[in-house]
Amino acid sequence: MPSRKSVVTVACFVILSALVLSVRQFGKARPDLLGKLIPSTAINNAGEKGGKKVAGHSCSRDVSWLADLDIKYPVKYAERKILVRPKSGLKRKSLTKIDKTLFPRVKELDEDDASHLELRDCKPPIILDVPVYPKTPVDASNMIFGIATTLERLEDSRHHIARWLVHTRAKLLVVAIKPGDGDAPTSEQMEAKQSVMRDQGMDITLVAPLSEEESFTESYFSLVKVMYTHRANETTWFAVMDDDTFFPSMQSLLAMLKRYDPNEQYWIGAISESWWSVGRYGMMAFGGAGIFLSRALTAVLDEVYETCTKEMHKAAGGDERIMRCINGHTETKLTNEPALHQMDISGDLSGVYESGRIPLSLHHWKGRDYPVDLMNLVSDICGDCFLQRWQFGKDTVLTNGFSIAEYPEGEFANGLDFSKAEMTWDSRTIEESVNPGTAHSMSPSRPRLELDKQKIQYRLVESAAVDGSVRQTYVHRGREDGVMDTVLVLYWKREDQQGSVGGNGTSAI
Fold it and tell me: In terms of Cα–Cα distance, which of 48, 225, 12, 64 is closest to 121?
């Protein structure tokens, strides 16, 4: 007959085995909640527990596409999958805190590893809640957009325009002007370009200038008349823009305009972020940010178009002509929408993009290192999440589509205020002005941090649609003193709401 001690030992072993099995099964079904059972301090960024390495499950991937990014081998590499969960009633915040680290430990990668990379420490996907977004393009058939540009510059912007215009039913009218001292485009060339863009799903019409002798400024102002001539019964808003104006979200743009009655005279836009530019050109809607004219106001401008054309021969720019015509013939005053961005500031614009503020438009991306079409691609997965910020753990901030920033010197603990924009940009100043340059547009702000010391920044260099997901590649370039390039990759994918796997400890401020 077994002793009482033996019976107790066997019973404890059976109970312990059952508990282990239950936890394992629970972990397979709800890995996100299982992680919460383990204190976050138990596993550090290096994937260690109690000072010892913990073996994660391995996975393999082909990363040969890195060869197209001018990466210098050997390179440090890490990746993570993100599952997006639309949540009804949720509103986008300036910064959302996640109580998990974003990446596992980095792996040193040689060029020979690129075709078959083995990662020993593959973490489960992070689940991010986002506001509910439409799965089909919004109906913007009440809008006509207008651009005056050359065929060459239109081609340079074609993919960027497609990001926000395709299948929205909004109309785009382009006054095709001649390039500098070159020849005016032929009707065949215009029709060919129009056909290409229509095949992409854009409702675009190219027209010749109203006069062969028109200057660019005159063609720009003529957009008011050209658009009004092409209006339909449902047209309520007319938008004048530059060929390098970018609208991140048509849905957000329509939501802004919905606050105004198009049967009243409205002139909506934004003054420049640069106080110097405002002083030079006036309190007007700057064209690069987008100028939005209500149906009622455009009807008046169409009536006085010929008069304004004769009066404005000394106006420097097309947007200035619009301002002078409105000021000279109506009582309409500018309605300033600061989320529309002219971007008349220079230098490093990281502080603007990383500010957590939701832009309705962006400008001046041509000739700068801001590929807004690639930056915005993640919106196909998570809706109005472009440039949305998440803080992971205690030292990492993701600005979606622009950068990942690490703060290695305890800047968080030093009270770094993320409600303030980091002043990374340069701007012209006006002597004896109380405005140092951008106080009216970018306040509140905080001083610039020293890169690679107070802030390590990984900038987006590539984004692509891959097997139903969007891949983002963020890179920190190494230095000549032997510091390697570091590549951080995120794979974004939608998660079926019916197949929810639980929360991930998020909080928003």
Answer: 48
